[in-house]
Write the structure tokens for this entry.
Amino acid sequence: MKRTLKLNLEGQEFTVVARREGNDIIIERDGATYTVTVVPEKRPQSAPAQPKSAPKPAAAPTPRPAAAPSAAPAAAGPGAVPAPMTGTVKEIMVAVGDSVNEGEQIMLMEAMKMDIEVAAPASGKVSEIYSKPGDSIKEGQAVMKIE
């Protein structure tokens, strides 16, 4: 079904004709045709840390600053929420003692200049938070615990 739409963008009016074909929206304006593909939103699903297939050769250790203690477990254990990828904690949406539902957004990370939503893998109560905004975390590292 075609629809004629009037759009106002920054004070300028446009009239376009739009129709949907599957996941595509076809937009026609002034004889030109544009296709926009709608990609369904995928919520990140927390998965257990993937085992590494072979150890990498040891590199020279990098000294850590004394002001950067890490209380986070290296591997996800029972109830632990693993980071879906390596990045930086941007925002934590819950606090210790909060009840969360499976799939609820609990943390926002930044990786490769993109925001990555971290969802609760299960319903429960947040019992521990191992990171804070600004922390660098690695893929699979536990960021909090939900019991």
The two ends are 49 Å apart (CA to CA). Residues 109 and 115 are 6 Å apart (CA to CA). Residues 80-146 form a domain with the OB fold (Dihydrolipoamide Acetyltransferase, E2P) fold (CATH 2.40.50.100).
